[in-house]
Design goal:
6 copies of one chain form a homohexamer. Chain A has helices spanning 3-21, 25-37, 45-58, 62-74, 79-93, 98-116. Chain A is mainly alpha-helical. In chain A, helix 3 (45-58) runs parallel beside helix 5 (79-93).
């Protein structure tokens, strides 16, 4: 696994575990909801992942973008689909999204290399 | 047509026309890109409309939400699909999205009434 | 009750009811969490209302500000306490908060008049 | 004076007066700073007004945009200069700025009509 | 002192000093106001620190969050109080606040370790 | 060249190249527009760079701020002009801009050292 992906994964997992070991119920329920919201329903999982990706990109949250890129990759979304979603995010959110687009593109390319390995 | 929809449409059309009669090229090209970005490509039009809707909702732009609700309705998206997309937006963007969700829900219901007429 | 307060209350109640009659579970749970998060715990209700008020003010959500002003007023918070909280919001969030501060101040004054009635 | 401009001016003046009659020192000083920051210095007043306008537009604060349009108009800035500044705001801030651009354009046209009267 | 805390403190102190050695009066006054706004008044210092913390968290400013965590810790606020404040921030600001919550939690735990040392 | 500037430049150039080698037309056109928008027109290049800088600062995009500081420096803007623009950004955008102001100040000082070399 690439360093970029591994570093992101490790920190996220470790801190989520520590956060959830804390007894704050509101935070636990928000984490729980976050899992439920992306389950298949009227919309399929792929579409929901793209919605999460675009919401994260326009709000310029790099870690959220990385998380949805990773799950999108696991769901078999293609680079062309990801780039179209991110192009809408860049248009709606403006050129301030571009630095996040650069980091998203780098992360996606590492995810694709990973697949080949 | 309901007053809410008509008022939104009329103001938007009238002001877009005035804006585009101005000779600012950057603004004209952004409007042009806005049309192109939602054309079918690797993703279909329905998915793209949902992406535009969620981006607009988390950025809390009522007029942008209304616009994407209208085009989503024209594309045949169902209320359940719209509500799932908006539920992701509310989760990602937080409870400050709720007032916009109320106005979106009202607008969608008027769009559906319109269909019956 | 003043028109400003009544109009806000009526629209909010009517649309919340319509939203919750819809069968989207994620949205229902977010509404539910929103009630739980402001219950007394390690922090008392007054402090939590002020936190909700300041979060709403820096994110510039007028309806959220009005809601927290109303509950703050019901909890017996004073104008001086509200203004100190809003002054922190204006400093942290910048002068773009000022138009929202004007509307918040007007709403609070109507809430206080209401008390006298 | 047009109704749009008069309504904006009247509410803003009335509420600023009420806000400043309150004894919150932090808010008073922020208002004071707001006056000082746009005084001529290393940059002239016209440039500073354009900076205030673009900051307001990308942060999507209609009242702030109107205020800076009004002072920009008083300072003799031209429509072409205003539109170039707003085109940069729309590019940097994305298409969610467009509804604010429509309202800004309408307000500016009313300011220009006013000049003729 | 932990590396995380020390690195944050050192950079912040060094750059604030350089910024304030510059002769820009508006920036100096904003720094000055920032000190005054958190002084005891109608609200006590603990409440004001929590307000600053929540405002910083929903606006997703990691350095601002760290600063308020540090002062909150010095003021004797407990982990349970901090977590309730941050749970409100996460609910109001949405799941995009979660990556900042992870970093805030890590920083707070280091502050508590520090206390034991 | 300082490490801070070199690192920013290298990553930006490398990733822009990779992004533009992808065949997404919307993204290519946004990049293209980004070049056109800062060309001389009714406003000169210096003013436009300051507008881009302030828009980037209030939206708290460090990489965008660095980019506009670099071009502003190449255009011969002075430190006093940059600081006045950034003071307006800090006032309009609030104290959450301060961490970005620290990083902007550090970057500008490195740009000025570079000039002497």
């Amino acid at each position: 696994m690439s360093d970029l992906i591994k570093e992101f994964d490790d920190y996220r997992s470790r801190m989520n575990e520590r956060l959830l070991s804390d007894d704050n119920k509101v935070i636990k329920r928000i984490f729980n909801l976050d899992t439920n919201a992306y389950m298949p329903g009227a919309l399929d999982v792929k579409t929901k992942e793209l919605l999460g990706l675009v919401a994260s990109a326009v709000l310029r949250c790099d870690d959220c973008v990385k998380y949805h890129l990773k799950t999108s990759h696991e769901q078999g979304l293609t680079k062309a689909e990801i780039m179209e979603a991110l192009s809408i995010a860049t248009l709606v959110g403006g050129t301030i999204v571009i630095p996040h687009l650069r980091r998203a593109y780098e992360f996606w390319e590492e995810l694709e290399n990973l697949k080949i390995d």
